[in-house]
Amino acid sequence: MGTTWRVLYAGRWPAAETRAGIVGRLAGLVTQLSHWDATSAVGRFNDAPAGSRMRLPPDLARVVDEGWRIAEASGGAFDPAIGALVDAWGFGPPGRRPPPTATDIARARANSGYRRLAWRPVERLLHQPGGVRLDLSGIAKGYAVDAIADLLAGRGIRHCLVEIGGELAGRGLRPDGDPWWIELENPPGIALPPVRVALHGLAVATSGTYRRGDHTIDPRTGHAPPGGVVAASAIAPTAMRADALASAALVAYPHLAGAGLAEVPLRLIVAGEAGPVEIITPPLAAMID
């Protein structure tokens, strides 16, 4: 996934054996979820002929199903099927290209959007109408965090903190009896008071324009969102959901309620004329209190 991972755990499993299991699980996830690998399950779906149906492997099916639900709930602020738009802006596997014209964007939008797909979750069947490309970069890391935490739980390790590329999930307690305390990430150069969260059966994810540059695309318009959000952190029961909700908030602000995000614990950092402004939604404020 082009990033790093870290796992802290309390348990009797040897570190070398645990690490080998984690590395193997992550490698398996890449073979299903990577849109950078044409041989992955996502790559095969993206290149499938028009009118075909593909039975998705279990991990990919879970990510598509959750992505579909959040796309519906957010009114399309999050969308797992905007690979054509990502490619048009030069952020995808084809590589850099000149800024797209209005015609380029219109063409890419015609080949984008989860509503163009037909998803049958019981059979795990996804219909490819032709030209639609999945891009799960706004949800896959979060799912991988959950998958590693589940892997550890299956080995009897129920006290752990899992982090992949800044997305985190905490289960159980630290050996000293405290929960897994983390501070929400601030972009470099922005000094704000720390916001500490106890990840006891919770997960947190942060999306931001500061990580890889301004690569955010509003799936509904094909352009960068106008809200000026530099970073969005979301807290949810799973890292997969937190990852997608943070991505949606980055796009939807300031219209959070219209994207179904008013009841989500969020911390946003927004660029302002006098400097960065921190916005904490009421659900997160209640958690902090």
UniProtKB/TrEMBL annotation:
<keyword id="KW-0274">FAD</keyword>
<protein>
    <recommendedName>
        <fullName>FAD:protein FMN transferase</fullName>
        <ecNumber>2.7.1.180</ecNumber>
    </recommendedName>
</protein>
<dbReference type="GO" id="GO:0046872">
    <property type="term" value="F:metal ion binding"/>
</dbReference>
<keyword id="KW-0285">Flavoprotein</keyword>
<comment type="similarity">
    <text>Belongs to the ApbE family.</text>
</comment>
<dbReference type="Pfam" id="PF02424">
    <property type="entry name" value="ApbE"/>
</dbReference>
<keyword id="KW-0479">Metal-binding</keyword>
<dbReference type="InterPro" id="IPR003374">
    <property type="entry name" value="ApbE-like_sf"/>
</dbReference>
<feature type="binding site">
    <location>
        <position position="247"/>
    </location>
    <ligand>
        <name>Mg(2+)</name>
    </ligand>
</feature>
<dbReference type="InterPro" id="IPR024932">
    <property type="entry name" value="ApbE"/>
</dbReference>
<feature type="binding site">
    <location>
        <position position="243"/>
    </location>
    <ligand>
        <name>Mg(2+)</name>
    </ligand>
</feature>
<keyword id="KW-0808">Transferase</keyword>
<feature type="binding site">
    <location>
        <position position="138"/>
    </location>
    <ligand>
        <name>Mg(2+)</name>
    </ligand>
</feature>
<dbReference type="GO" id="GO:0016740">
    <property type="term" value="F:transferase activity"/>
</dbReference>
<keyword id="KW-0449">Lipoprotein</keyword>
<keyword id="KW-0460">Magnesium</keyword>
